[in-house]
Structure prediction request, 647 residues.
Amino acid sequence: MTPSPDSSLFLLGTSHQVANLNERESIALPSDSIDSFYRGLQELDGLKECLVLNTCNRTEIYGAAEDNLKIEVVSNYLAEFRDLDPEFMIQKTYRRAGPEVVRHLFEVASGIDSQMVGETEILGQLKKAYDDASERAFTGKVLNRLFQKSFQAAKWARTNTGISRGQVNLGNVLCELARRIFGQVGQCRVLVVGAGEVAEGALEAFKSRGSEAITVTGRTFDWCPLSRRKPDELAQKFDGFTLAYSKLHDSLHLFDVVLASTASAKALLTHKQVEVAMKKRPSKPLFVIDASVPRNVEEAASTVENVYLYNMDDVSAIANENLQSRLTEVERCRTALSKRALRLWEQMRAQPSLPS
Amino acid sequence: MNLNDVTSLLWIATFCFGISFVLGMVKTRHSFPYGLQECPFILIVIGFFLQTRALYLRGIEVHGCPLGNGLERTQFILWSLILAFLLLRLVWQLNLLGTFCAGASLLLGSLSLGLKDWDAPYWKAEGYTRLFQDPWIELHASLAIFSYGLFCLLAVVSIMYLSQRQTLLSRKPGFLGPFLPPIQELEVAAFRLLAVGVTFLSLSMVVGTMHWTRHPEFVSQTKLAVTSALWIGYLVLLGMRMSNRLYGSRFAKWTIALFAIALLSLSLVSSKQKKQAFHALPLQPLALNLR
Prediction:
């Protein structure tokens, strides 16, 4: 899959910048359908390289193609795959080409395009997406170089600018919220449903604040599609316990903090289940974090007395509000990354086997 | 500034509470230079001493515990509130609780000082001998007022609870949210304050009942009904909280509502003898005067 000299670089994507949570949910690819999505992409005439980034907050398709492949073809394929109206796709996605793709990827990798500006989880997700695409042999000279350079750019941005200072990390924001609810975060009994990266990041933050009672459960104790980590491995990593998923609802009242981070397409915790659990701990608050897309906890659960339910959008909004004072730093970072992106694009163009 | 004038002292104390409240709120957003960090707390302490001196001077003037008119009762409740805060602060390091207490003292203190009718000089009336001739009744009144102070602090804690809860439910950082105490600690504190307050009020009721059974002619039916209803109200609230039938935001709202009723009840009832002795004066709130 070596691109020809007249191939072009493109990006089709959606994120919090153009779509709300419900809209992103409808576009996001279910984790068990990534394989079939890649297979379908491979069949598009003219597509030479491609990489799918599918996270909680963004779904992006990076590609290098011959000029005869129009980005609408990819867009229509995604719309068809997710059973969406093509017009909806036009409204709720962005398209980039050439140097704009490089600049966008640098911004994504460095975290300045994230909902929580400066967060570092996106870099890990990008690396995983890159590994996935490489293993499938969907990346080539163009995307290999582009992504490796983007990882370097991200590292440079975090080292040389202040975009990663302060609590922009999801886990730290969650710990701060837990402190406002319970006081001593170390005393909280934490239950994680799923073994995704978000869960891992949150557990690290809770553990660093002295949390001892950490329990992990999952719908399956086999391979976790979000992180390739088994729930029992996650529990072991944090000296925690495992809980059989079948006992989740009966044991819910025993926990102070519940973090749901699975790829389940349906709600794992309903309003009724939370209500039943709260009857067993009426005067004790319950902090529920739904870090999943699609959401794993019914929104109506937040109406139960003493239940504090936050989803990814809420946590991100808090973190970003805390970061208002650092906007100037973000601008400085964006300007520097833009220059680096342009330089890379010119180098790529100078090589005959790279996109025009 | 006359440090021997009760009204002036109370105004200065209220002013201190006001400044403390403003500084406390500013402190949540802006760091103070080293050395000025404790300014809000020091102002509360100064206000408390001035208030204590004012009530002491008034006590000498009326020959007893100064609980004879609206101003005295309100100031005594606020004094109890600040005392309870100062005691609580020793075990519970919460500066913002002091700020909220100072705010309550500013509001209610200004109101009581601003209403001239509330400070009628009943001790200057013809035939006045002494507000409380029986020390047991004086004990009853001071216990009851102290319990009112605790209930006032409970209402303050409940307001803080509701503010924190609202901020958390809004899912936004909010202005005060990050600086307010954790919601679980506020709920525990509210429960303990209610238990201690009910204990003091019950003791007061026991002492008051002993007097009532011997001299029922001094206690009006209205006063008896209102104070009993209030006591039962707090007892029921405590029982419901202990049995987990009432908790969270509804519990907080009830504690605020009951304290508002307690405050209003002060101006609804008066003892029979008081009316007879001061028929020429405006009707005064006398809920706890059992003469």
User: Anything to note?
Assistant: Residues 6-277 of chain B form one domain. Chain B is about 70% helix and 0% strand. The two ends of chain B are 35 Å apart (CA to CA).
